[in-house]
Fold 3-isopropylmalate dehydratase small subunit.
Amino acid sequence: MDKFTILTGVAAPLPIQNIDTDMIIPARYLKTIKRTGLGSGLFSSLRFNEDGSDRADFILNQPAYRKASILVAGDNFGCGSSREHAPWALLDYGIRCVIAPSFADIFFNNCFKNGILPIALPQEVVDRLMDEAAKGANATFTVDLEKQTITTPDGESVGFDVEPFRRHCLLNGLDDIGLTLQQVSAIDAFEAQQQTGQPWRWAR
């Protein structure tokens, strides 16, 4: 998993409440178990017309936001079914941070496991950030996970909190597998001891 330390990028405003995982990545894209290639389907029902052409009114299709790496969204982001493809699609598109008043629990947890930083802030703070994000190409935010701050284009600094263990994992690029591999020496020692003391467990 890529480390998340400091992210500076364009923030796209998405003032829609209850964006569910089917809106993030529709069910027809769930046939794959690969984490790559899903960015093309991100928000497809909002991004594309029935003929596959871009919907000019959708924020990520506007030139200033096509390379956005931060989303400022409405309340209850990521609700609906518990598909891990949702953070996969966001990450594959290039979104590394989502700011919203609240998140669905499973989606929130899945973000941390996939290198995305979800930041929950009070509604009035999100509203201010939404206004800043509406500045188009000038809507460049800096998200500093070490300092736990968001710096807006006008220089405002907004603080946020992340649970220490999750912060540690993001800063060091540790997913569940990475955390396990940190204990590889202890695992190897246990297996060696077990092979000697209980060889029948290793019989093939």
User: Anything to note?
Assistant: The chain has a mean pLDDT of 91. The CA atoms of residues 189 and 195 lie 10 Å apart. The helical segments are 21-24, 44-47, 85-93, 105-113, 123-133, 164-172, 176-181, 184-197.
